[in-house]
Design brief:
Distance between the termini: 20 Å
Strand order of the largest sheet: 4-3-5-2-1-8
Number of helices: 12
Radius of gyration: 23 Å
Helix content: 40-55%
Number of strands: 8
Order of helices and strands: HEEEEHEHHHHHHHHHEEHE
Largest sheet: 6 strands, mixed
């Protein structure tokens, strides 16, 4: 297909995997670790550097139209989430981060089998691929470049993890503090202002983000309970994996199930379809099942013994997707199995 598109052959290939959060949801930007896993499904890009400044992008999926631009004049229209913008984002990110100029052109053909818009990081995989493509075309060593990278400073952001760190207490103790400090009933903006001793204007301009300035209720107790309990579950999950007790799989499954309950009830990022799918997966042999990704739709992840996998896939497909009204007819790759996959890499032609 590359040859038919560009009349030549690729010089190298880049791949980056999708990922799934085994456990740990909506806590990373609060300062806590999550436990992700690369899946076997990935994005693959075939690349041929050219001597012009022309950047030509094509996709094996006809739903995504071809695109071309100048490699040295990349404009990203943020109002239109077109597929090629994710590639441009990776390229431009590398270009700006390392202060690069006079980028060479290239022909690129993109392929992938990560289900899109499902919380499995298909777009992130494309961005990562584009960054690797750019570094490889420029002949730069990725590890040396990454060694220079400095973490972003979050000094101006008061995250839930910082509260725990300043108090110097455990996550379990932090949950008790949450019980004492916050009430389960939702807070309104006026009550928050009274607690903090600030005005409504200060709340809107100094604390709330643009998309939350019109929110009238804040479930602070529920959100804090989710973050601290979920952060504790991630650490418990890691500890069980390291110690490997005889009932390890059962214990890990229980943590996954607790995570889903917290996402559903405390963070409210589930939906009826996800709850139903989780119940069906547990019914047909999943040791643990939970939503993954941001939620409000998207994807679930289930831990299933290998010997139960064929019957599990068949039963879940029948129970969830094969409806009499056809309302949830599966798209290609809606239901799939994966083991932990490998990371991003560059494949050079021999």
């Amino acid at each position: 297909m590359f040859n038919s598109k560009f009349g030549s052959i690729p010089k190298f290939y880049v791949r980056a995997p999708g990922r799934v959060n085994i456990i740990g949801e909506h806590i990373d930007y609060c300062g806590y670790s999550v436990l992700p896993m690369a899946v076997e499904q990935d994005v693959l890009i075939a690349v041929e550097p050219v001597k012009t400044y022309a950047l030509q992008l094509a996709n094996t999926n006809p739903l995504y139209p071809d695109f071309s631009t100048s490699a040295n004049n990349i404009q990203i229209d943020k109002t239109k989430p077109l597929w090629h913008n994710y590639f441009l984002c990776g390229l431009k990110g590398i270009q700006e981060h390392f202060g690069l100029s006079n980028l060479t052109g290239m022909n690129c053909l993109v392929d992938g089998n990560i289900p899109p818009s499902s919380g499995l990081s298909s777009s992130s995989a494309l961005v990562c691929c584009a960054g690797l493509v750019t570094l490889t075309v420029l002949g730069r060593n990725l590890s040396k470049l990454l060694a220079k990278y400095k973490s972003l400073q979050w000094d101006k952001v008061l995250r839930l993890e910082e509260v725990q760190a300043k108090l110097g207490i455990s996550l379990e103790e932090m949950l008790l503090v949450t019980e004492d400090a916050l009430h389960p009933e939702p807070y309104n903006p006026e009550e928050i202002c009274r607690c903090l001793g600030i005005s409504l204007e200060e709340l809107r301009t100094q604390i709330l983000s643009p998309n939350t300035q019109d929110v009238l209720i804040f479930k602070l107790y529920q959100r804090a309970k989710h973050v601290y309990s979920e952060a504790a579950r991630v650490l418990q999950f890691k500890k069980i994996c390291e110690e490997a007790p005889e009932n390890m799989v059962q214990l890990l499954g229980e943590l996954m199930n607790q995570s889903h309950m917290s996402c559903r009830d405390m963070y409210e990022c589930s939906c009826p379809e996800l709850d139903q799918l989780v119940d069906i997966c547990r019914k047909f042999g999943a040791q643990g099942s939970r939503l993954t990704g941001a939620g409000w739709g998207g994807c679930t992840v289930s831990m299933v013994p290998a010997d139960k996998l064929p019957s599990f896939l068949a039963n879940v497909h029948k129970a969830y997707y094969q409806r009499s009204d056809g309302s949830l007819a599966p798209e290609k790759q809606s239901l799939f199995a994966t083991k932990p996959g490998g990371g991003a890499l560059v494949l050079l032609e021999a």
